[in-house]
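Pilot study result, target chain (327 residues):
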Amino acid sequence: MTDSNPIEAYRAKFISHLEQKIKIKEPQNLYEPINYILNLGGKRLRPVLTLMTTDLFGGNVEEALDAAMAIEVFHNFSLVHDDIMDDAPLRRGKATVHEKWDINTGILSGDAMLINAYQFFEGYPSDLFKRLITLFSKTAIEVCEGQQYDVDFETRDDVTIPEYLKMIEYKTAVLVAAAMQMGAMIAHAPENDTELIYEFGRNLGIAFQLQDDYLDAFGDPKTFGKQVGGDIMENKKTFLYLKSLEYADEEQRKSLLHLYSIKPKDASTKVSTIKTIFEESGAVADTKSAIDDYTQSAFKALSQLAIPEEKKQILMAFGKQLMERTV
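Predicted structure:
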């Protein structure tokens, strides 16, 4: 696929496919919320990666569209249920499904989305179907495990950095990695290359989530689309928080532990105090450094791929663009 901006070309192709596939049907109260969440926009990062990877390995992008749909529908299913668990009011700047409808609708429409995601693999030849579905199921259960770790960490005071990194790997990075590996599988890439592209996606996914943690605290509310400071309000033990605890002096440490044990009605003072500690302790600088480290690890896996250099450059440019985002 050639275009002055290939990312936009993949995204446009995917959105066109999505619009053909997603229709409101009966019962409307099941399908309207599905249509709503899938049309809220977002970066379409994961399906774009599936299409891009298929293309980079010389496959037919058309054949990757249904796998890309499976990835996007699953991702959005997980957001609908995560938003219920987090009691989040906003998603991409708009009301979340359970706020716009109700919790029961969010649960049931989410369930239907998970089943729909599997249905998108049904058109693939049996050998490829088995490989795709095996990877997808492994990834889906890891995402659930990651979400449970995330929930558990809210009430634990002894979360370690390695535990946190495992949680974001499962909750976020493995789906990015699987999206890319599926693209390579559809293009019939050699096994070694499908594993390397998975590693590229996994490391980039961890970097992406660390960047998300940073933007949650320090992003611009106009561009970020979610409630800035939401993680702090929910007492989430992010990388920023854990690094602050590691570096903070005794007074800052006591203040952090206290503020993360309460949920005041007016959270603005809590958020601003904690952000100051994040900056003064050196946690912000360390988070930015970790983002860079994981990005470099992704590029190292990329360098070992048996594809032409100009194709590697497309993926490298994509990785850099992702790490410079403000949304």
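One observation from the pilot: The radius of gyration is 20 Å. A full batch analysis is planned for the follow-on phase.
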